[in-house]
Design brief:
Helix content is 58%, strand content 7%. It has 20 helices and five strands. It has a five-stranded parallel sheet, with helices on both faces. The radius of gyration is 31 Å and the shape is extended. This is Disease resistance protein RGA3.
Length: 439
């Protein structure tokens, strides 16, 4: 379920209410008073929003409160946009009237009275609407007291220390040397005599399946062993025509006409791979239907013996189906495909964290805390990387113990540990950036 991030828009609302130019369009004190009262109510709610946005992950009542609040706050924002439009129109009308008076050296009394009357009616209407919205907000403001929300200041961005880095920092890969060697061994074993065989890498999200595939794909031995190398990101859309088109584009190093029929693509594609040993990587595959794999496999049969298809997937069934259709790759020392990728050992995760965070704990107590934090990452490299990124901007002695106690760690027991790290990373973003990731 999408998280609710209101603090940025409420910050803008407070700023709009503080804009004195906004109040210039009011013609009587009642409207001025309603605007001021609205600002007080909105400001009181704004003060606790950051805490509410964090608590919503483990308190359903807070999330429900935020959902109700969001509806009213968007009404407030629409109302203030109405004010801004009216102010702009009034400014244009005043400029036009000044020009008319300058040219005619007189004023139209009836026009002035009519204009004033419209402004008066507008002011009364807006005062009523503001009062109605403010009353809704006051009820919600009373409800917030039940959640014991704390006043928080969004100072994450201001307090974050920035360090100079290279424009293209090298990718840090730790603990995958053995996995790399095994995948390369499978790809380079040509003893089976099969025209095509598949090497499926299976594991949960964030384990580094794609990174491992990249290491193997870029290995110098692949250049020497395969005449054609193609990488295709597939994801959940296992479209045979699209996959063939991407492969052909990569081989030809130019885009293909979008209106090419599948039969035409087949001829062009097979002409390119016929009699050649190829290495195709299908990254992040979700397709579990045998028919789809059979359809793809029949286009690959013209390749030379020893051709390989390297597949990364989260699904064991994808690995089993692809192996059934394309035949699993084997080697003299490796059996039992698919290749199940495991999490990093604790020492490997520690090395990755130290390299990523750029911080080496100076005391055994802090190191113990860091290792306990790493234990919650369950060896998932993406989780380790994100946590290390957060720890790099904090003080090990004072803030790492607090980080370990974060309640967000406890809400995803039994789930992929990457979700806890994602929530923590999201929670540490400045409010104005959270909206980019909220949906």
């Amino acid at each position: 379920m999408a998280s609710i991030v209101l603090s940025p828009i409420v910050t803008q609302i407070v700023e709009k209410l503080s804009d004195l130019a906004l109040h210039h369009i009011s013609l009587f004190c009642t409207l001025q008073t309603e605007l001021q009262n609205l600002k007080v109510t909105v400001s009181a709610i704004h003060a606790v929003l950051l805490d509410a946005e964090e608590q919503q992950f483990h308190n359903r009542q807070v999330k429900d409160w935020l959902e109700k609040l969001s509806e009213v706050m968007y009404d407030v924002d629409d109302l203030l946009d109405d004010f801004a439009t009216e102010a702009a129109l009034k400014k244009l009308a005043a400029a036009a009237e000044d020009d008319y008076v300058e040219r005619r050296k007189t004023t139209c009394w009836s026009t002035t009275v009519c204009s004033s009357s419209k402004q008066l009616m507008y002011g009364y209407r807006m005062a009523r609407e503001i009062r109605a919205i403010r009353e809704k907000l006051e009820l919600l403001s009373k409800d917030k007291d039940n959640f014991h929300l704390e006043v928080r200041v969004d100072d994450d961005l201001a307090s974050l220390p920035f360090r100079e880095t290279d424009s293209c920092p090298p990718t840090i890969v730790v603990g995958r040397k053995d996995d790399h060697s095994k995948i390369v061994e499978l790809l380079l074993d040509f003893e089976s005599g099969d025209n095509i065989s598949v090497v499926p890498i299976v594991g949960i999200g964030g384990l580094g399946k794609t990174t491992l595939a990249q290491l193997a794909f870029d290995d110098e031995r692949m250049i020497e062993s395969f005449e054609i190398k193609v990488w295709v990101y597939v994801s959940q859309n296992f479209d045979i025509k699209a996959i063939l088109a991407k492969m052909l584009e990569s081989i030809n190093r130019k885009s293909q006409p979008a209106d090419l029929a599948l039969d035409v693509l087949k001829v062009l594609f097979q002409d390119k791979i016929r009699g050649k040993r190829f290495l195709f990587v299908l990254d992040d595959v979700w397709e579990e239907n045998e028919g789809s794999w059979e359809a793809l496999g029949k286009y690959l049969t013209v390749g030379a013996p020893g051709s390989k298809v390297l597949v990364t997937t989260r699904s064991r069934l994808v690995a089993e189906v692809s192996s059934k259709i394309l035949k699993p790759a084997t080697s003299t020392s490796l059996v039992g495909l698919p290749y199940f990728l495991e999490g990093l050992e604790l020492d490997e995760a520690w090395n990755l964290m130290v390299k990523k965070a750029g911080v080496v704990p100076q005391s055994s107590n802090v190191e113990s805390i860091a290792r306990e934090i790493l234990g919650k990452c369950c060896g998932v490299p993406l989780a380790v990387n994100m946590v290390a990124g957060l720890l790099s901007s904090t003080d090990p002695e004072t803030e790492w113990p607090l980080f370990l106690q974060k309640e967000l760690w406890t809400i995803s027991e039994g789930e992929n540990p990457i979700m806890s790290a994602l929530r923590l990373s999201f929670n540490h973003l400045p409010a104005h950036l959270k909206r980019c990731f909220a949906y």
